[in-house]
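User: Before I run my own analysis I want an independent prediction to cross-check against. Here's the chain; please return only the structure tokens and, at the end, one sentence I can use as a sanity check.
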Amino acid sequence: MNYAQVTEQYTHNFSSKLSNYAAAMIASLGVVAAMAVPASAFTLRGLEFPMGESSFADEVVDFNKVYADGLTKEEAYAKNWRASAAVFDNPLSVLGAPNSGWAGNKVAIADRDDYSLGNGGSITVKFTDNFLVGSDDARDDLWIFEAGGLVENMFIEISTDGDFWESLGKIGGTQHAGIDIDSYGFSSADKFSYVRITDNGDNRYGQGWAGADIDAVGAISSEPVSVPEPATIFGVMAVVGAGMFMQRKSAAAKG
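Assistant: Structure tokens:
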């Protein structure tokens, strides 16, 4: 193979790899563009969520349910609690907008769609397409949707990385389940992705629906995950253009 052939082969391989890279980047930009579309705000139970459906937790990171009387799941089910306990055993029930019973809309146990923590149990959720932020005022920024009547007692923590946690104290005992994170020293510049909820051990614990029953976790004060700066987008477009140019040049040389 002579020098010209080696050069042509190298150019062809490089341009092919460049084009593949560009295609991947274009696909990524498509995802980013979708994320950048403004969310439709809506009001739910008198609470306004500016980012609409994106305001609610997207992923369950960890959970630890504790059944009544310290029983294991198998022991609890063996006590004929299966019918009631199973309804409250799915941690994924806490994701998305609330859809279970509450003080203003009670539903039959069989139709409930929330997750019971149990005596001292906990669940950790994550926002993947948005951040929980402060509002720079005294308004509630975070709301824990707890199914049933009065909000049962629970400890709330938030984190930026899932490792280091900031305590937001305890909520419960009323129908108010909102927290102003600014009152704990945070602001709109602070971005949190994780929320951990822990039953404080001071609730009713019987059968399957022991402890706090979590329906959803919503960020009232929220900010979308960052999208690439215009300079980054133009850079990708330049890569795409270079790849197309080199492919055409290679094709012309062969012709």
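Sanity check: The chain has two domains: 3-36+228-254, 42-224.
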